[in-house]
Amino acid sequence: MLTANEVLGTYFLETRCQLLEIGAMLDRLDRAGDAASDPVAGEQLAKIYRSLTLLAERDTTADRAERLLNLFSDLD
């Protein structure tokens, strides 16, 4: 098992890259127009923002990945 410092050292750059990708996708979405006008796209966007809120919680349990999977499980 890795220490907290080892986890950060190992995964920081990859995580930073993924977060930049999310920011870039949201920027593209904003430039493209109002996705919320389409019911399916609006629900997808709402789930993306709920997932970001879930990830931003500092005082939470260590089951974020499971909670994200549950959040997105009905996106078919």
Features:
mainly alpha, flat, 76 residues, 0% strand, single chain
Quaternary organisation of the protein chains: single chain
Integer average pLDDT = 92
Count of strand segments: 0
> What's the helical proportion of residues?
over 70%
Shape: flat
Q: How much β-strand is present in the residues?
A: under 5%
**N- to C-terminal distance:** 35 Å
Unreliable parts: none
What does the main sheet amount to? none
Radius of gyration: 15 Å
Number of helices: 3
Structural class: mainly alpha
Series of H and E elements: HHH
What does this 3D model show about the protein?
The structure is a single chain. This protein is mainly α and 76 residues long. Helix content is 74%, strand content 0%. The protein contains three helices and no strands. The mean pLDDT is 92.
Topology:
Blueprint: H1 4-32, H2 39-56, H3 64-72
Summarize the structure.
With 76 residues, the protein is an all-alpha fold.
